[in-house]
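Review this:
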Amino acid sequence: MNQVILVVDDDTSNLALAQKILGKEYRIAAANSGKVALKYLENNCPDLILLDINMPEMDGFQVLEEVQRMERFSHVPVIFLTADNDPETETRCFATGAVDFVAKPFIPDVLMSRVKKTLELEIYRANLEHMVEEQTRIITARTRRISQIQEQVIMGMATLIETRDNSTGKHVKNTMTYVKMIASELKARNIYSDILTEDYIMNVYKAAPLHDVGKIKISDAILRKPGRLTEEEYNAMKLHTVYGREIINEIIGGVEDPAYVKIAEDIAMYHHERWDGTGYPIGLKGEDIPLCARIMALADVFDALYEERCYKEPIRPVYKIMQTLKEGRGTQFDPLITDVFTSLEQEIKDLLGELL
């Protein structure tokens, strides 16, 4: 189908001339005023508009202003038609958004050349835009797939590490759930809302499985020991936090989003710090401990108490653990996060009832 050109000019002889010059190659729609042109555009979308500047009631600039308000015509190029040779008029033509202008009276070859060039460029632009959109879609799909693979590898690695100390492997998924519950509820209550954006919460959720990744460097003799660790063994175990940050930096430091990497490193490094400053590995205190690590601390301890370990029996029911967490409010744990997590007792009971 031939491309459609809307010619707008109050001089009917110019409309006839445009039809004669362009009609053999293009379909011509004619309008003898700005109002008629706008009426036509209510139900039609031409490929190009040739727009006279000097018209009664509405001049070309006013018509173009109205057209530009309609988003569906944002891609339609406009060439001004003018008998005015004033340089200021030429400047204004381009300043208002026209792609070109043609002087009147028309020179057939010039008009045809300008129209062809403009429409060819528009086709090229549309093809390029389509190509960019298609490539963006492909890249997005590949990126999503790569991200899924990375998440699967991370989950697999984290689960493998958990099973080394005779854990059931549920700890990874459980703590992911708890940290998201805590962070979302904090945000809902406008607590730490300056930090807890949706992106931050999602990064904490995705990073949670890596909190104990440093245990990969801890010997089985320590990890799988059924009884109490000696002081030397305990000091060796504490190093899993430092190892964890190092491993995360080595594995994903150069390929993942820096914000996510930072949260993953902070969780691994600081989730055993305590609110009162007596935790490890470096004894951070209060809000000096990154928020993501303070959230992780509650989720980690809750699940560690609830689930069976090689060195302990599980603590049941949930309210007993909640009481233990409350006792650690302001000493081991962030008071505000403790209050929020313990307030979710019924939701957690319901969740665990589904898992059992």
